[in-house]
Structures are given as structure tokens and as C-alpha cells.
Amino acid sequence: MKPYLLYVLFVLALGSMVGLVVNVFGEEIEETPLAAAVETDLEDLPETFAVLSETFDEPIADSDVARIKKLASNPELDEMNQHALGTIEVIFEGRPTTLTLETDIYREDGTYLYLYLFGEPDVVEALDERIMAYYEELGI
Q1: Residue 111 above 70 pLDDT?
Q2: CB–CB of 61/37 below 8 Å?
Q3: In the 3-class helix/strand/coil scheme, how is the chain assigned residue by residue?
Q4: In a 10 Å sphere around its CB, with 0-12 CB exposed, 13-18 middle and 19+ buried, how is residue 112 labelled?
Q5: Mean of the per-residue pLDDT values for the chain?
Q6: How distant is the alpha carbon of residue 98 from its chain centre?
Q7: pTM of this prediction?
Q8: Around Cβ 97, how many Cβ atoms within 10 Å?
Q9: What integer pLDDT is reported at residue 89 of this predicted model?
């Protein structure tokens, strides 16, 4: 009986040590936020936001679109990095929510943007569905 108890204590001690090491040295896995993405030319940005506005109860404010267009048109923005464009407040299914916008910029033959819209999962999924429907309308 005594060897059995020693074996159980040894296993518990070993398990506790492994748990302690994992707890102290283990990496926390950062959850990747969900985002909808849309491609657009800088000059077509107002039309793109008009399409995205169809997802919400109220259209995206013209002042937000103008602010984002001004930020994205900055010639000093590096093409190799993702750039934050700020946030916009929208109303989705009767509740206010915030979208965070980031972009990749490409300047071949004009200024071309890949917009990433981050937000609550149901809002992002609704945006993604609208973007896919828009691409189907365009035949893309």
C-alpha cells in the first residue's frame, strides 16, 4: 500500500510541476479578430461606402467617408504596411456599434485600397454577405 501511495504522490507532484511550467511559460494564443474586406479604388470610395451602408439601419455619414478618403489619400502612407483609418459609428439592427477600419494601399495606376472592417461578428458577417452580393452584381 505504501508504494502505491508514493506512486500516486509522485504522479500528482509531476503533474503539478508540468501545469506550473505551462502556466508560467506558456504562450497565450491571441484571438484573431473577424474582418470583412473589400477592394476599391480611392476615387470609388464613396460608392463603396454607399454599398456597405445598405447593411446598416442608417447610411454611413458623409463626414466619415470624407475623413477616411482624406486619410487614405495621404501620399506618405507606405504601401508595404497596413494602416489604421480610424473608427466609424453605425447602427446595425437597432443597436449602435463601432467598426474599425484598416487598409492596405497600392499605387499602381492610381490609388487602390484593400479595406478591412473589424467589428462584432454578426456585423462583420452581414457586411461580408453584402460585399459578396456586390461582387456578384459586378460579375466578379
Answers
A1: yes
A2: no
A3: CHHHHHHHHHHHHHHHHHHHHHHHHCCCCCCCCCEEEEEEEHHHHHHHHHHHHCCCCCCCCHHHHHHHHHHHCCCCCCCCCCEEEEEEEEEECCEEEEEEEEEEEECCCCCEEEEEEECCHHHHHHHHHHHHHHHHHHCC
A4: middle
A5: 83
A6: 12
A7: 0.73
A8: 15
A9: 92
Amino acid in the structure at residue 127 = L
Q: Which residues of 32-63 are buried (b: 16+ CB within 10 A; e: fewer)?
A: eeebbebebebeebeebbebbbebbeeebeee
Report CA torsion sign: 37, 33, 49, 109.
Answer: negative
Task: Report, in angstroms and rounded to the nearest whole number, the Rg of the chain calculated over CA atoms.
Answer: 24
Give the pLDDT confidence of 11-26 residue by residue, as tens digits: 566 666 666 666 767 6
Q: How many other C-beta atoms are found inside a 10 Å radius of the C-beta of residue 109? A: 7
Cα distance between residue 46 and residue 101, in whole Å: 15
Give the closest residue to 44 by CA, choosing from 61, 64, 78, 69.
69
